[in-house]
């Protein structure tokens, strides 16, 4: 953990520059290695082909980011990371927001139950 999940509508796929967005979002968390261990950061993006926005009369688009983390981080740390991630999201899509209807959102999901993880990537960053 943490995991970054980006969902975006297919009508912006040619301009969204999703790999670049994922790097920028990773960089926000990588800058906080004592809060978010680098070896645990993962991201993925899903292009949505079946969706409906508002009344369906315009070629509207959206991008929704979910940040999933394990529990135990302070409210201050979570807010700072999410605030910065949302600013990155808005900055990344600012050119597109000037050209079309687009909504951006970011959600923090914190696991309250235990999670089960196994791997050897963390060791590389010790």
Q: Identify the strand order in the major beta sheet.
A: 2-1-3-4
- What's the alpha carbon Rg, rounded to whole Å? 16 Å
Into which percent range does the helicity of residues fall? 25-40%
Strand element count: 4
Range of strand content: 25-35%
Structural class of the secondary elements?
alpha/beta
The number of helices is 2
Helix-strand topology string: EHEEHE
* N- to C-terminal distance: 16 Å
Low-confidence stretches: none
Reported for the largest beta sheet, the result is: 4 strands, mixed
Overview of the structural elements:
The chain is built from 2 helices and 4 strands; from the N terminus they run E-H-E-E-H-E. A 4-stranded mixed β-sheet has the order 2-1-3-4, with helices on one face. Helix 1 runs antiparallel to helix 2. The chain has 126 residues and is of the alpha/beta class. Helix content is 29%, strand content 27%.
């Amino acid at each position: 953990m943490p995991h970054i999940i980006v969902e975006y509508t297919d009508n912006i796929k040619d301009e969204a520059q999703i790999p670049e967005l994922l790097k920028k979002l990773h960089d926000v968390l990588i800058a906080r290695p004592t809060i978010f261990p680098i070896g645990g950061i993962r991201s993925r993006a899903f292009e949505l082909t079946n969706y409906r926005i508002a009344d369906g009369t315009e070629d509207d688009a959206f991008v929704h980011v979910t940040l999933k983390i394990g529990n135990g981080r302070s409210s201050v740390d979570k807010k700072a990371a999410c605030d910065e991630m949302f600013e990155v999201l808005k900055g990344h899509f600012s050119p597109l927001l000037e050209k079309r209807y687009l909504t951006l959102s970011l959600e923090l999901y914190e696991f309250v139950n235990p999670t089960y993880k196994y791997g050897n990537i963390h060791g590389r960053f010790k």
